[in-house]
Write a structure and sequence with these properties.
Layout (H helix, E strand, L loop, with lengths): L1 H6 L38 E6 L9 H17 L9 E6 L5 H13 L4 E3 L4 H14 L2 E5 L18 H10 L9 H18 L4 H11 L4 E3 L2 H8 L5 E5 L2 E5 L5 E4 L13
Parallel strand pairs: 1-2, 1-3, 3-4, 4-8, 5-6
Antiparallel strand pairs: 6-7, 7-8
Helix pairs in contact: 2-5, 2-6, 3-4, 6-7, 6-8
């Protein structure tokens, strides 16, 4: 049960990483021209959930975890990734406690995590980006008001009754449902990215994400997107949150209408 997994979340944990940049920079608009990378995966897709069990986002920890678990359970019910179940590991994000963030990262790195879904915390993201870049792991985090491009939507989405019920089937103890939708959609996009790239390595997932959230054929569910990928090389996954605007430079993702990057949005 997800509740049981979350109970030990503060004990160390995790892994991750985007492909550059630092927190606070506006991200460039997604582009479908990413360069393919060499395969580095082992065939099993492992997702790390950096859950905010401390700090200002702690109230949303269970919703984020439930959204990730819900997406993974649906994919596994459909056959998983590479005919194997997708695995999820939950660890504390350590918002406000860098030692916890470092410990979680190290633990999940040791456990072979390929991609991390991080919280909407500029502080956590700033700490994770260089670690993840060095480790070659993909990182995705919802943008916040502190690090989103000017004009990007950052207000958390409110699930409708149907999706709220699905989250609570995953974890009946979920109270506040904030960031449940975002976590679900970003997890689904990461799995589709690995599927498109035909590799579960972190750099492949980041590359694949640029091709599932760009200007390809629109699709709104895992099954629909798989059907499109039978004949197409790129898709535009638009889930419950709508259009995903993802940067493989910063790891940031925001939803809705794309905005132009600021002149200072340069990679480092």
């Amino acid at each position: 049960m997800l509740v049981g997994r979350l109970a030990g979340i503060l004990v160390a944990g995790a892994v991750v990483v985007a492909l550059a940049g630092c927190s606070g920079q506006a991200m460039p608009t997604p582009t479908p021209t990413a360069t393919p990378v060499a395969a580095t995966g082992d065939g099993t897709l492992r997702i790390g959930d950096m859950t905010p069990v401390s700090g200002p986002l702690a109230a949303y920890a269970k919703a984020q975890a439930a959204g990730i678990e819900l997406a993974v359970s649906e994919v596994n019910a459909a056959g998983g990734y590479n005919a194997l179940p997708v695995e999820v590991l939950h660890r504390g994000a350590g918002d406000g406690d860098p030692a916890v963030t470092d410990a979680s990262f190290a633990d999940l790195l040791a456990r072979g995590v390929d991609v991390i879904i991080a919280p909407a915390s500029a502080t956590v993201l700033a700490q994770l980006v260089p670690l993840a870049k060095a480790a070659g792991i993909a990182l995705i985090a919802p943008a916040s008001a502190d690090n989103a491009p000017a004009g990007a939507a950052t207000t958390p989405l409110v699930p409708d009754d149907a999706f709220a019920a699905r989250l609570r089937v995953t974890d009946p103890s979920v109270g506040d449902l904030t960031y449940g939708i975002e976590a679900y959609d970003l997890t689904m996009a990461a799995i589709l990215g690995a599927t498109l790239a035909k590799d579960d390595g972190g750099t492949s997932i980041a590359y694949g994400l640029s091709l599932v959230t760009g200007s390809g054929i629109p699709c709104s569910s895992y099954g629909m997107c798989l059907d499109v990928l039978k004949t197409q090389t790129s898709i535009d996954y638009m889930g419950l949150a709508g259009q995903i605007n993802y940067s493989d430079v910063t790891g940031l993702a925001y939803f809705g209408t794309a905005v132009a990057p600021s002149p200072s949005a340069t990679s480092t």
